[in-house]
Amino acid sequence: MPVVLILLAVGIWFALPHLSGLFGVAKEETGKPESVPPTECRASGAAKGHPAGAAVDGFNNRYWAPEETGDGIGEFLECDFAQPVRLTKLIVFSGTSARKDEFLTQARPAGITVLLTARDGELTTRTIRLRDQAGEQTFDLRGSETVRARFTVNSAYGTGKDRRIAVAEVEFFGRRS
């Protein structure tokens, strides 16, 4: 019996340095993700009064819209993080506002390609399909050591010659690396 206790104690002693990593992985998978706002955003273009930064300012009644009117295909919003983040979730408020009475005043993205760039340059691509409705839409979005996220419009709802694509808010959640 004493030999078993000694072997168990030695095993625990050698395993201690590795246990903290195991607990960290468990926390990331089961813990609540935190908000990880970007430090800078830019876009393919911006209509007067609707800059790229309006899509990440924490208010869903201001919005980014590109300078050009039309279907919005190819327009993009790109955000940088000051330090790498482990992304787990994305929330998007499409349209001009989360309020139903304002939501339909401009075009809204229907399909978006998300391109995540990791610190080492590795790229991860995900296509997201948005519903044509006011309010938040939540997506699982996994990216390790992410330093940049780019959203490119593939298709849209409610387009027209005098209408622009509008994104009221984009929120990132995960953990800082």
From TrEMBL:
Region (Disordered): 30-49
Residue ranges annotated for the NAD glycohydrolase translocation F5/8 type C domain, each copy included: 52-172
SUPFAM superfamilies per record: Galactose-binding domain-like
NCBIfam families per record: NADase_discoid (NF047619)
This protein's name: NAD glycohydrolase translocation F5/8 type C domain-containing protein
Species, as recorded: Streptomyces niveus
